[in-house]
Specification:
The protein is mainly alpha-helical. It has a domain of 54 residues. 22% of the residues lie in helices and 3% in strands. It is built from two helices and two strands. α1 links the parallel β1 and β2. This is DUF4113 domain-containing protein. It comes from Klebsiella pneumoniae. InterPro entries: DNA_pol_Y-fam_little_finger, DUF4113. One of its GO terms (molecular function) is damaged DNA binding.
Length: 125
């Protein structure tokens, strides 16, 4: 049986325990949200992430907070930003995969009845 298309928009929200500018933390939160909505046997077309509730760089941490920021996080993210200023995608995270360039999705392409004789439906008696 062919996989079914997920017809409805599915969304989940997640919360970061502490303010972060580390892409790795945002990617991890997105992966946790995806794991909660994923269903085998469905074909998904696209996904997106929205961020909200921004705070300044000097956000106050909770006194009893056990989720301290990663060591050297700011230095790493600054290095990634500097490298990517030379051109988008110069350095990426492994989960982003390899960019194979743009490719048109053709699995839902409409027939070209008006421009291609071979696309015309045939009737047999």
């Amino acid at each position: 049986m062919l996989p079914r298309w997920a017809r409805d928009g599915i969304g989940r929200t997640g919360e970061l325990l502490v303010a972060t500018q580390d892409s790795r933390d945002i990617i991890a939160a997105a992966q946790r949200a995806l794991a909660r909505i994923w269903r085998d046997g469905y074909r998904y077309a696209k996904a997106g992430i929205m961020l909200a509730d921004f705070s300044g760089r000097e956000a106050q941490l909770n006194l009893f907070d056990e989720c301290a920021p990663r060591p050297d996080s700011e230095a790493l993210m600054n290095a990634v930003d500097r490298i990517n200023r030379a051109g988008k995608g110069r350095i990426i995270f492994a989960g982003q995969g390899i960019n194979v360039g743009f490719a048109m999705r053709r699995e839902m392409l409409s027939p070209e009845y008006t421009t291609d004789w071979n696309a015309l439906p045939r009737a047999f008696m």
